[in-house]
Amino acid sequence: MSGGGEGEKRMRAGQGGWDRPAEREKRGASIPDPASTPVPAALRERIESAMALYPDARSAAIPALHAAQEVHGWCSPEAIAQVACVMAVTPAYLDSLATFYDMLETAPAGRHSVYVCTNISCSLRGADELLAAVEEAAAADPDVRVRSFECLGACDIAPMASVDGVYVGPLTPQDVPELLADLRAGRAIMPERQLARRLVADQRANSREFPPPPPQGEGAPTSAERDGAHASEERQP
Ligand code: FES
Hints:
4 strands, globular, 9 helices, Glutaredoxin
């Protein structure tokens, strides 16, 4: 059936990797040789730190690929070989993950990502217009990759977008120039619209400073002591 409606257009935009045929002539993969696979020291450190968090080091594959994507801009063969080398797995194993998870880029892509949610809550509040405005404003900028996304789990700030991983909303098409200007300048993205800065019902979680400064030095209160202090503040008349 042929179509072309907005829904179908969004689905096509969200595809990634599914229609790539198996390369049946390709040789079996092997773990890259550390002697011939240089890995940037900072990237190696991030991958090893991620591996240290899991009983099975392979569980770190996704954070490791994200780290490599930040360095290389996408999960290029070189990036995958570097991750495979540090993790001592085959590139084929990592490729199977990178082609499945659509936040991992398997083709050259811009350094910045703007994912506009177009699921039901956001759609009802103008997400299609927002997506169109972002696509138009960023069309000539190869450094910004724009795409629609299914529910990003922040329906209370619909319509919203994830901008380099920062949730921002509610947004209108008129907000797009400011959003892209912040992104290109490396500034905090529309700080007053960030989900992380919204006040929540639990007063103890709110702070005028964001993020709250960690306690410094010896004698800093433990979390239990801080909770106790908060509880006694709440009891004040
Ligand atoms: S529908 Fe957009 S965040 Fe849930």
